[in-house]
Design goal:
The chain has 388 residues and is mainly β. It is built from three helices and 28 strands. A five-stranded mixed beta sheet has the order 4-11-10-6-7, with no helix packed on it. The protein has a five-stranded mixed beta sheet with strand order 16-17-13-12-21, with no helix packed on it. Strands 14, 15, 18, 19 and 20 form a five-stranded antiparallel beta sheet that branches.
């Protein structure tokens, strides 16, 4: 809840607003955790209320009378020792009531800590079109009172100090600089944290945008069979479109996994080529494949870039292994039964997704396996159709 205080006067059984009926002092203090506070509630003599009939509440809970002290017929104090952190940054409600429970006056208590030095300041540039930085609060990360963070920057040697303006609403402790970017001049960047109890500044980092470029994932990723090779698949892709006009030497990674597994195997030695052959795979198995890019050496930068996100998964299946006919009639019957059941499921799916014989291909079969893996609902519908 938000800390809201109303002052009232109680006359003729009716409450009406009056700013001078009662006052709580101090008003809206800001205190460190563990501090002590003595607050007093003064009521106007014309109200006809004696101080010993008053009581205090903190966030709606009545405080014990042992904490009270009558300072005068119109003044009652309360002493709070070892204050805990505020429950919300909007403050805690310390309220003075008359004997009937009506609110006379109140104050908001802000109990917290000064900010600590922000840490883990990290920056990156997507396609050299922006400069985005994120950081983490120092210490335990929570001051318990409203704390403001500002990302500051300037061009090294001759720039004037500026503040980032595009703070993220979805990613806390993050801001993007999108205007007046300089590609061949280092930046000095830091974060300032402040609240009503103090301030702190992060370490200054120095960087060149060309050294921290990341990009979109590679586009046009395709996975296909290599003839009838049972244990291999071919993967092809295109360089990120946004960097086609830049001078750089891309570095790529591929990862792939079995249809029924969540464990990825990563290939790190792809280099800057835009195709790769996966070998040592299981015959007759669907694989999911992803590719990502690291734009190394943009405009001659000597530092490695930052890896992009992985591309969307692309799937393909390896050919089934060729097997000799078994003399065991039971084994042969079980194998034929499994094959007939899978074929029947596939043909039922084709009726809904393929139009004409021209659509019948191994790619269509691969797409069916992908749909079966992605959607349990689709798999159940196919299995129910098989039973019918």
């Amino acid at each position: 809840f938000t800390c809201l205080i109303f002052s009232h006067i109680f006359k003729n059984q009716v409450l009406s607003f009056n700013l001078y009926v009662a006052i709580v002092y101090p008003q809206d203090p800001v205190l460190r955790m563990g501090s002590n506070l003595t607050a007093s509630c003064w009521v106007h003599p014309e109200l006809g209320v004696h101080a010993n009939s008053l009581f205090w509440t903190l966030n709606g809970h009545q405080l014990p009378s042992s904490l009270y002290r009558v300072l005068s017929p119109t003044n009652l104090s309360v002493t709070l020792a070892g204050l805990n952190a505020s429950r919300q940054t909007s403050g805690d409600n310390l309220v003075c009531h008359n004997h009937k429970g009506h609110i006379l006056a109140g104050s908001c208590l802000y109990v917290g800590m000064p900010p600590e030095k922000p840490v883990n300041l990290t920056c990156w540039s997507r396609n050299t079109k922006d400069l985005t930085c994120s950081w983490a609060p120092g210490g335990k990360g929570e001051t318990n009172i409203s704390t403001l963070y500002k990302l500051k920057y300037k061009l090294r040697w001759y720039g004037t100090e500026k503040e980032c303006e595009d703070y993220s609403h979805t990613q806390p402790y993050s801001c993007s600089i999108t205007q007046d970017l300089h590609l061949f001049t280092p930046y000095e960047i830091w974060v300032e944290a402040s609240n009503r109890l103090g301030r702190a500044t992060s370490d200054v980092i120095i960087l060149d945008i060309l050294d921290i470029v990341t990009t979109d994932p590679p586009s046009g990723v395709t996975v296909s069979r290599l003839g009838q090779l049972e244990d291999q698949l071919s993967v092809r892709w295109e360089a990120p479109p946004a960097l086609k006009d830049f001078l750089f030497k891309a570095k790529y990674q591929i990862r792939y996994r079995l249809e029924e597994s969540q464990d990825w195997k990563v290939m790190n030695d792809v280099g800057n080529q835009t195709s790769c052959r996966l070998a040592g795979l299981r015959p007759g198995t669907v694989y999911f494949v992803q590719v990502r890019c690291n734009p190394v050496g943009i405009y001659g930068s000597r530092k490695a870039g930052i890896w992009s996100e992985w591309s969307h998964p692309t799937a393909a299946s390896t050919p089934h292994a060729k097997r000799l006919m078994s003399c065991d009639s039971k084994s042969s019957g079980d194998s034929n039964s499994t094959l007939r059941r899978e074929l029947k499921q596939f043909l039922g799916w084709v009726k809904k997704h393929a139009y004409g014989c021209s659509s019948m291909s191994m790619k269509l079969y691969d797409q069916w396996r992908v749909d079966m893996q992605k959607s349990p609902k689709t798999r159940n519908q196919v299995l129910q159709g098989d039973k019918s």
